[in-house]
Amino acid sequence: MIPAAILRATRSQPAFLASIVLLVAVVLIGVFGSWLAPQDPFLLDPQSVNQGSSAAHWLGTDEFGRDLLSRLLIGVQPTLLVAIGATAIAGVFGTMVGIAGAYGRPLVQFLIMRSVDIMLSFPPILLALLAVGFWESGVLSLAVVIGVLYIPHFARVAHAATLQVSRMEFMEAEHAMGASAGRVVFTAILPNILSPLVVQATLTVAAAILLESGLSFLGLGIVPPEPSWGQMIGTARGYLGQNPMYVIWPSLLLALTVLAINVVGDRLRDILDPRLREE
Amino acid sequence: MNASIAGALLLVARKLLTAFVQLLVVATLIFSVMYIMPGDPVLLLLGADSNPSPEAIAAMRSQLGLDQPVLSQYFVWLWNALHLDFGKSLTNGYPVANYVMQNLPRTLELAVAAIIIAALIGVPLGIAAALKRGSMRDTVLTSIATIGISVPVYIVGTLLVLFFSLKLGWLPASGYTDISRNVLEHFRKLALPAFALGLGLSASIARMTRSSVLEILGRDFVRALRAKGMSERRIIWQHVLRNAAIPIVTIIGLQLGNLMGGTVLVEAMFNWPGLSTLLVGAVSARNYPLVQGAMLAIAAAFILINLVVELLYSLLDPRIRRKRS
Asked: Which family does it belong to (chain A) (predicted)?
């Protein structure tokens, strides 16, 4: 039923379809980027530094004469790995915390939800800055740091959804039949709170991409010479005068990707959970 | 009447308590993070390359109070922080509080300028979209807002620099001039960072304004006014916008706190010497007291702004007060 609704939406809404196509392409590039790259993305060429597009370099070169197109193609992977890893961490732990906050003992509930509130009251980029500023920065540590920072967001959503589910009659039936806590969580709660969690996951992927690229932009994320889009934008800022297209390409790709995720997220929310619809 | 005053006092007390606990937790977090992180501040201070003698290290350790038990260090630090004493910078021995006091107003100025820009753009666009719901105008404005939310602040900033300072040469690309030295130059340098920060926010303000106006437009009293034959113009100006104003203003106020996070990237890219620039520099230099002071100042500003905004609106609007309590 839900796949059918998604299929219907792709037919009636071209923006949704375009976004899905773009995201599939981005994921494919993330997986196969190093094979797709027409040239060696790490090959320095001091003869052709900061050039515009040409037959040899379709999108031009960077400040070391490296092929921009190739670097853009392999620069997707770290960003995607960080975003997916962070979302997985935030999703798994956030959901557990949220269910415990709604379904645990009253004291547990109180402690969990107050900590969630406090965590939410702090801008994630500041904590991320602190963490990556001191630790070795890389895909794994970025994914862990960003994932941990978004646990409270998931917990809040899972908490609200669980509270709603726990008022339903089938929950009473489960309890009356003497179901164990594990059974209740896995067969009664989880399947019924999945929709808002999926929507939250799309939001978290977008937020994680923005956070990773922001940190890389500041020079605190993905470490050169390994490229990521955010880091390329940060570097390209130093060469705005010589080669403005150097900053335009990664900016365009990053903005389009985040836009596509937001469009898909909006539509998924409408399809999965009509009650959450904005209007 | 008495009951409502008591209710209001209770609300204020509860919010103050919450803010205090939040600050305490954040302060504890900031303090403990410094101990989990690698790197020895004493070696940093003495210069690890100069191979300091063990006696010198021990002397410095006791001078900084680092030879005390962690718990007593914590309470001393907390007590000092309560008196706005955040210790001294490891690199030059200046009091951290001086740095914080110097940079905090600049960050606040940037955030306030950005929010004014965002409100001036976002609110009219949101109203315009809501009044013609479902029209071409609505679709275009809503799509632009979705795009605006998706474009990261540093891309907006870079494009602004590319266009307004490199191409047109109207505004300086980065930097800071103190207002006491040159008022015009001060605001010329404020313009691009404030717009970079404000544009993305204007998109979300437009979206939220649109849904608040739509919400009011759907209320029964609007239908009643229409049935009564009141002109559409009067309904909108006198009734709809007035009722939509409170949620809109609340949302904008709450964004001010969130902007404290947004300033991190904007300050870095425009060389705006605010708290975030201080923090980023201190993190890179592993200047622990400065990191702690800057973090605590940003957190405190964030929590206090949100506290004041929430208090003001919940006291001004009895409906919010009732809903929250």
From this structure: Belongs to the binding-protein-dependent transport system permease family.
Cβ of B25 within 8 Å of Cβ of A130? The answer is no
Q: Are A51 and A57 in contact (CB under 8 A)?
A: yes
pLDDT reading at A135 higher than 80: no
Distance CA B186, CA B301 (A): 23
Residue A278's pLDDT band (cuts 50, 70, 90):
very low
Q: Domain count of chain A?
A: 1
Contact list, B306 vs chain A (CB under 8 Å)? 121
Q: How far is B283 from chain A (nearest CA, A)?
A: 6
A234 vs B154: CB contact, 8 Å cut-off?
A: yes
Residue that has been written with the tokens 């981005």 in this structure: A26
| Chain B touched by A182 (CB under 8 Å) | no
Mutate to test the interface with B, among A130, A149, A223, A246 (most CBs of B within 10 A): A130
CATH at residue A129: 1.10.3720.10
- Band of pLDDT at residue A205, cut at 50, 70 and 90: very high
ipTM over 0.95: no
Map out the domains of chain B with their CATH numbers: 2-68 (no CATH), 100-316 (1.10.3720.10)
Which residue range is the domain that position A189 belongs to?
A: 2-39+59-272
Report the distance separating Cα B175 and Cα B273, nearest Å.
Answer: 8
Give the residue from chain A lying closest to B156, CA to CA: A251
List Cβ neighbours of A52 (8 Å cut-off, separation of 6 or more).
Answer: A60, A243, A245
Q: What integer pLDDT is reported at residue B2 of this predicted model?
A: 66
